[in-house]
Amino acid sequence: MNDIKESVEELGEDIEEMVEKLKEERDELRVKLHLAKMEANEEWQELERKWSKLEAKVKNMGGAAAESAGDVRAAAQLLGQEIKAGFKRITRQL
Questions:
Q1: Hey, how many other C-beta atoms are within 10 angstroms of the C-beta on 92?
Q2: Where are the alpha helices (DSSP H) in the chain?
Q3: Cα–chain center distance at 39
Q4: How far apart are the C-alpha atoms of 53 and 47, rounded to whole Å?
Q5: Per-residue DSSP letters for 69-81?
Q6: Measured between alpha carbons, how far is residue 77 from residues 32, 50, 65, 81, 90 in Å?
Q7: Under a CB-based contact definition with an 8 Å cutoff, are residues 23 and 49 in contact?
Q8: Nearest alpha carbon to residue 76 among 93, 52, 92, 94
Q9: Are 53 and 79 in contact (CB under 8 A)?
Q10: Which residues contact 38 (CB under 8 A, 6 or more apart)?
Q11: More confident residue, 34 or 7
Q12: What confidence tens digit (pLDDT) does each residue in 49-76 have?
């Protein structure tokens, strides 16, 4: 009978230890998730600023002289690529 009681007590200790480890992992993951959310939000804000610049460049392309239109187009394409890469980084974080 003592063997069964000891086995039950050991099982209870094992479960308590497992729960404690899971709690620690959960807390660590919560912190990491919070930090990732903050980083994603910061990147999103930067992408929003770039988006505004891109919209302005596209709007100005129509009124730009033929010589400068190529420069505006190249800048807009580069900005668009940066935004696309940023979106992918945020998607990977989520």
A1: 8
A2: 2-61, 66-93
A3: 6
A4: 10
A5: HHHHHHHHHHHHH
A6: 34, 12, 18, 6, 20
A7: no
A8: 52
A9: yes
A10: none
A11: 34
A12: 999 988 887 777 666 555 566 777 788 8
Residue 56's domain comprises: 2-93
pTM of the shown model: 0.59
Q: Which residue shows structure tokens 């086995």?
A: 7
Place of tokens 């505004």: 52
> Within 13 Å and on the Cβ side, how many CA atoms surround 41?
6
Structure-token pair, residue 6: 């000891």
Amino acid, res. 93 = Q
Token representation of residue 76: 């807009």
CB 57 within 8 A of CB 76: yes
Residues with Cβ < 8 Å from 36, sequence gap 6 or more? Answer: 93
